[in-house]
Amino acid sequence: MAEPIFSMEHVGKAFGDHVVLRDITLDVRPGEVVAIIGPSGGGKSTLLRCATMLERIDAGSLRYGDVTVASTGSTGQVAYVKGDELRRAKSRFGLVFQSYNLFPHMTVMRNIMDAPIAVQKRDRAEAERQARSLIEKMGLVGTEDKVPCQLSGGQQQRASIARALALNPDILFFDEPTSALDPELTGEVLKVIRQLAAEDITMIIVTHEMAFARDVADRVVFMDGGTIVEQGAPDQVLGNPQQERTRAFLARYNA
Question: How confident is the model at residue 165, as a pLDDT?
Fold first, then answer.
């Protein structure tokens, strides 16, 4: 079996006295699509923010392939790598936010090209070729010179997916990528993610789209109260959940 692209072991996170993640252990292997579901406040978005180093973990370890990003030492304190090792880890993932997070003053083309040139120091001509290819792949031809406020929500989200893919990451994280969209635009974005799954792009997707999770994910993880309550194949977790908390959550969707 292939080594995990990404792993968390016994991760904990608190904001003051409020514990948000409790003993989270999660591995993701190449080509795997993992959907994370659960009620609001269950810790899903915080897990993604810790995974992508937007928040620091308080306990446990975080690893991307052969790079251990954070680990708990003998003193009980979590230490993070720095310098080149940290840059290597950050180059291995892309993150797509629910609020798009495109640079408002940049065109679609510049939004996609910016990080490959500024962060990865890649050749401008190469970055532009890749950006044009991604724009075509995302169905955004004709928007190259538009700024985000000139785009629909679905177009903005597809542009943000293109921007994440431009870094050639090992894994993509999606934080409720359709929560800000109406049903028609939601369909546009889910179609793109289905296409990425068919191409064996490794993904962790926090979502409230249960039918989508059933169709696309290799594994569904149900979180509540900052813990992983249950995980397994979509048909098992969504169709025959073993835990009462999972059953109660899903009953709201199936009512």
Answer: 93
pLDDT in tens, 207-224: 998 988 999 999 999 999
Q: Side chain identity at 177, as an amino acid letter? A: P
Cβ neighbours for 38, distance < 8 A, ≥ 6 positions apart: 44, 222, 223, 224, 229, 249
Q: Is 41 helix (H, G, I), strand (E, B) or coil?
A: coil
Helix (H, G, I), strand (E, B) or coil at 32: coil
Domain housing 147: 104-168
- Domain assignment present for 154: yes
Residue at 122 is within a domain: yes
Please name the residues in contact with 135: beta carbons below 8 A apart, sequence gap of 6 or more: 108, 109, 112, 141, 143, 144, 162
**200 within domain boundaries:** no
Report, in angstroms and rounded to the nearest whole number, the Rg of the chain calculated over CA atoms: 18
Strand blocks (E) in 97-243: 171-175, 203-206, 219-224, 227-232
Mean pLDDT of the chain: 92
